[in-house]
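Moderator note: this is an archived Q&A kept for reference. The question asked for a predicted structure of one protein chain; the sequence and the answer are reproduced below.
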Amino acid sequence: MFSKGFTLVETIIAGAILTTAIVGVAVARFSFTATSSIIPSRLIAAYLTQEGMEIVRNIRDTNWLQGRGFAEGFILCSRGCEADYKTGTIEQETPLRPYGENFLNIDSNNFYSYSSGAPTEYKRKITIEQILADTIRVVVNVYWTARGRSYELEAEEYLYNWR
């Protein structure tokens, strides 16, 4: 009454299930490979974003130490600024300059700056807005291109005049 073996319908269904499984694994692997290839550049962008926040904090703290208002010099950055850490140079006194869509460079010690080193694909824009008399909003955007696609990482923080 029952035949031993597979019928044509069972064979087609088994083939469809097997094909779906193989295609699913291939798509997952391709997606993982594409995503994992940009992880190093996202990590660098996160570092550059955090460094931008630290630069603004450093300027705020320097203002306090020199007896100036905590937000002095930040009005320049309402449309965006570029800044990097420079010690012992004129840039240390005036680290903020208008945003010009310049690429950051990396030197032989793996420090990023606008002045020296090999060019990178990263741009950093720091926007500062005074919300209240004792509060500023800092937004740092890092832009870069990898594998033919443009990426952006944004961080936002509020700094206060807590003194």
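Archived answer notes: Residues 103 and 123 are 5 Å apart (CA to CA).
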